Amino acid sequence: MNTPYDINALREDFPILSRQVYDRPLVYLDNAATTQKPRCVVDAISREYYSVNANVHRGIHYLSQEATRLHEEARETMRSFLNAASTAEIVFTRGTTESINLLATSYGETFLKEGDEVIVSESEHHSNIVPWQLLRDRKGIVLKVIPITDAGELDFDAFEKLFSDRTRLVSLAHVSNVLGTVNPIRRIADMVHAHGAHLMVDAAQSVPHRPVDVAALDCDFLAFSGHKVYGPTGIGVLYGREALLEKMVPYQGGGEMISRVSFAHTTYERLPYKFEAGTPDYVGTHALAVALDYVNGIGMQNIQKHEQMLTAYALEKLSAVPGITIYGHAAEREGVVAFNIEGIHHMDMGTLLDRLGIAIRTGHHCAQPLMQHFGVEGMMRASFALYNTTEEIDALAAGLNRLRQMF
Ligand code: PMP
User: Which residues form ligand 1's pocket by a CB distance below 6 Å?
Assistant: First the structure.
């Protein structure tokens, strides 16, 4: 395997990878759902609880100051990771879903009126559909949908025709969690801005796999989840341009987000705290920063190269399985491969693969409109991370072949 790093040494960083399931070595290929955690991330969590723990931003005492320092250093790590202009643009959330809900609520309340239009695509995750539908119910906005081609790419001709003088925001995944398609965000940003609208990028599936630079992408907002990039669950980021965040009304009210409170009148904290009501997950932010440092230590370009190699290998191996349909064949894609095998229900196959120790995802992948596009109820999905090997893909292909014969 031609990998730009020592994969066996690196797998040692992830204790879970050496466990067995059903007396077989675990083959974990469900990384688009969540990634496993390196020891340094878990150690950072226990270290902080054992020796630092105190609420942030509130105490004058030693521990509170140390916890606050770690929390704010983490914000700087995220800023630098995304190449944002300022830490004021880095809002901590529970993850991509909360980031998009925050945006739909605050951006919607601030900038959108009845009849204004938001554009999403047919291949979005439910997290980038339902918050806009809730806003539609509340405010009477119009939600428009970009169709995709059978290759799994955005239909740019149809996309261009959706713009009108009421288009305010376009919200799209950077990378599809089902097809792996990479959307050309910079090109889209230019299109969106030419129409005087804003661009939100759901980067849940790009941040773990490729360098993401908000300045180079020229997006207005971007969201990702820590748990998909080797960090803990329950922490994520919403990046937003300072000038826009500055104008937007708060999402939730409570402690941390206020400047002064009286019953007559309350004023809000400066950015980004205006959007961070309540005690933040300060242990999570620190642990996520440790995860991003870990990723940077390996080098995002190296990770991408390795995963591209795995994806090409998987496409070749899986294409040879009789009766297989692989969904989407975008020109640019990341390490996600979705498929079905003729005559076999995806759930049955997934259950039997599990008995062989192979963890893949089955179902609608929180993208039911995309399933409708392909006329299926669900798919199987294998998704790769920096620690996966070609041997694991061989195990998947062998498992599929063996089970297929059983059926
Ligand atoms: N968008 C995409 C493209 C995703 O893949 C996911 C997670 N599957 C989400 C949004 C939601 O992420 P989370 O559940 O971490 O909020």
Answer: 32, 95-97, 125, 127-128, 173, 177, 202, 204-205, 225, 366
Per the CB < 8 A criterion, the answer to whether 347 and 378 are in contact is yes
The alpha carbon of 228 and the centre of ligand 1 are apart by a number of angstroms equal to 8
Strand order from edge to edge, sheet including 236-240 = 90-93, 236-240, 221-225, 198-202, 167-173, 117-121, 142-146
* Residue 1 scores a pLDDT above 80: no
Mean pLDDT of the chain: 97
Q: What is the pTM of this model?
A: 0.98
Give the Å distance between the CA of 204 and the centre of ligand 1: 5
Sign of the CA dihedral with 342 first, then 348, 349, and 352 last: negative
High-pLDDT (> 90) share of the chain, %: 98
Q: Which CATH number fits domain 7-30+299-406: 3.40.1790.10, 3.20.20.300, 3.40.50.720, 3.90.1150.10?
A: 3.90.1150.10
Enclosing H/E stretch for 354: helix 346-355
